[in-house]
Each structure stands twice: as structure tokens, then as C-alpha cells.
Amino acid sequence: MTPKEPPTRSDYFRDQWRAWRVLGALQLNARRYWSGAMLLNIVVALYAPALLLSMFSFETPLENITNFSLSITSTATVLKFGLYVLQLGRVGDLEKVIARLDDRVEGAEQLRCHRQMAKKLRHLSNLFLYTYGFVLLNSEFSFLFRSGRSLPFPSWFPFDWKTSTVNYIGALGFQLVAIFGQILQNFVDDSFPPLALCLCAGHCQLLILRISSIGHAPSEQEANEAELVECIKDQKELYGLLELTRDVISWPMLIQFFVMALNIGATMFGLVFFADTMQDRMYFVSYLLALVLQTYPVCYYGSLLEDGFGHLHYAVFGSNWVSQSRSYRASMTILGERTKRHPRLLAGSLVPIHLSTFQGTCKAAYSFFTLIGNTRERAGPDPSQN
Fold this sequence. Notes:
By secondary structure, the chain is mainly α. The chain has helices at about 10-20, 25-30, 35-50, 60-85, 90-100, 110-140, 165-210, 220-275, 280-315, 325-340, 355-380, and strands at about 345, 350. The chain has eleven helices and two strands; from the N terminus they run ααααααααααββα. The protein has a two-stranded antiparallel ribbon with strand order 1-2. It is a multi-pass membrane protein.
């Protein structure tokens, strides 16, 4: 890779744009509502009410827990997808800023760092892709190993599917399509934030390398001054990139943090106390893995980004500023003051996108887990297990 051949949008968000196209997000953003993808979105949107209408109405605790976790997940997924559809224009602006920053990559060290960043982004996107593919397989086909006529997940239908073959095929087809669409929505909703923050952190590290290397190689002072001015422009672009990223992911992440604590607690409870068959255990384990993947990477890169902006201030004094001109030192002072600002990403302007938040949600999940356990003990043993 050379500075004249920067990565394009398809390299960074290739899988995400493909998913948005399949889901009709671009048509929805352009207010073109009549398309084939709209049928998929309608099915996914109807799936959440079908789950909510049957909440806590099943005979076994396992079905009730599964229905509860799916109900809040489905509702959150529809809300997050709608928010991302509204912000797709900002995603395009974000990519333009990234392209301009990519054009500034030069030198062996920066190129090596840039290649590592691009490789990390591809691995991260593949991690989401393979994990959600595993969840899709478990969700779509685990019901085949059950005895009798059954559906992938317990939900409400306005007709009797247990005694009618036609109704059963209709209910099964509806759930299979809805599950596919919802997992695809989850993939794009959950993979975009960590990828965007990874890009921000990567370009912050590249700017640190760029600033700290000024003046160490033989060059004219005028060239060093010009490079410092360009770095000031890069710093402005980087802050703009962070602002765009915040605008896109802020509210979806607030929804995600709220849902995660309830979901992990309920899923762990079902796995520990009620999952008896191998198929149920595999489903709950894969579902739990997907829940952790929804929040841990984005919190990790949020923390990494915050640390990177903290080091940006020290990179200014890492350059060979002592032997430079007065004009250079004046510009360096301006850049030093600008880098004192340490932006912090907040979900919904309330919750930090940071590893401390992930730790807090895990604690909340454990509290919800114990709350369900205490309620179960007071209610007595489950009659279906006798």
C-alpha cells in the first residue's frame, strides 16, 4: 500500500454497506419505501410485537426466559436500525474525512501502522461476521432436533399453528425470515461502532507519529513549519471525525448499554438453571457470546481512543522543536494548547463509551441474575421439573 492508494470505503465498511443494502437502509434513508427489502424490514418489525404479546405466557421457565431476552433484543434492534438509517448521510461524511486523513499517510513507519490498522479492521469485521453467522445457524436450525412440531422461538401468533400444517409452515417461514433479518440488523448495528472507533484510534496514532517525527530528519525549517501546519489541520480533521462518529453511534449505544444488562442476566440464568439439552446450551452460549461482542469491543476502542488523545499532547513535544524557528515554536504552542482537549465519547450524552461502562453493565447483569434467582426461590420449585 502506498500513500497514493489509500483504502477506500469498501475496504473499511465493506460488510456493513452490503448489509445495509440487503436491508434496504439506503432506500429508507432516501425515503424510497417501496422496495423488496422493505418486506424484510416489515417482517422484522412485526417480529418484536409477536414476541412482546406472548411475554411470560408460556408453561416452562426456559421458554419464558428465551422469549423475554428475544423480546427486548428485537425491540432494541428495530430502534437501533432506525437510528442508523437516519444517520447514513453522516456515515458518508465520516468516510470522506477518513479518506483525507488516509492521503496524509507517508513514510515507512506510518505505512506500517496504517497496514496494521487496516488488518485489524478486517479481523474485527470478520469476528462479528462469523459470530453472528454461528448465532444464525443455532437460531435457525436448533428446533429441528426437538421432538414434535415446534418453532425456533416461542412467540405469539393469531392462529393455531400446532394443529394446522399450513399455519405451521406460515409461522415457521415468518420466524425464519424475521430471525435472518434481525441478526443481519444486529450485525451491522453492533459492528459499525467498534470499527469507527478503531479507525479514529488508528488515525490518532498516525497523527502522533506524524507530529513527533517533525524535525528529526534533515530538512529545511520552512518544510518543518509547513508540515506542522498540516498536522494542525489533521488534528482538526481528527476532531471532526470523532464528532461525526459520536453523532452516528451515540443513541444506538445508549439503547445497547441499557439492554445488555437485562439480556446477559436473563441469558445466564437460563443457561445455568434451565438449559438441559445440548442444543439449548449451544444456543445460550452463542447468544451470550454475541451479547458480549455487542459492547466489549466498542468499549475497548473507546478507552483506547481516550488514551490516544491523551498522548497526542506529548507528541507535540516529541518533535525536534528546540532547533526550529520562532514561527515553528509559536505554531507548536497553538497545537499544544489544542491537544489539551481530551474528548470523551458519551452514549446519549450520558454514559461513557469506556471499559468502565462495560464493567458496570456486567455488574448490573449479575444483580439482575441474582434478582431472578431470589424471585425463583420465593416462588418455589418449578412444577415442570418434577
